[in-house]
Write the structure tokens for this entry.
Amino acid sequence: MINWKLSAVALVVGASAGTAWWITSTKYDADIAELNRQHASAALATCEQSAGAVRRAGSLGNATAVQISAAAGRNILDIRTGINEDQAKLAYLQEYIRTLQVQGVVAK
């Protein structure tokens, strides 16, 4: 029979992982919506500025590197930090369960 303590630990780990995923997903969706809004307004301004311009044929212009915004970079680093923290918590809980198994408190 499964020990109730092991079930409780599994429930806490699952709830924590689910909550972390939900928070990250919600923040990501909000960031994407904001980026889409900014892109739409920039595209509109670009179209208005270039509407009367004379077009040249056969040129791609100077190629430039694509860069992400500072906010997007911070979001990526925040997500990476969250993943590392979650992995550390899971490793701790797994070691805790192994210790309880060695002590005979939790069945293997």
In short: The helical segments are 4-50, 70-103.
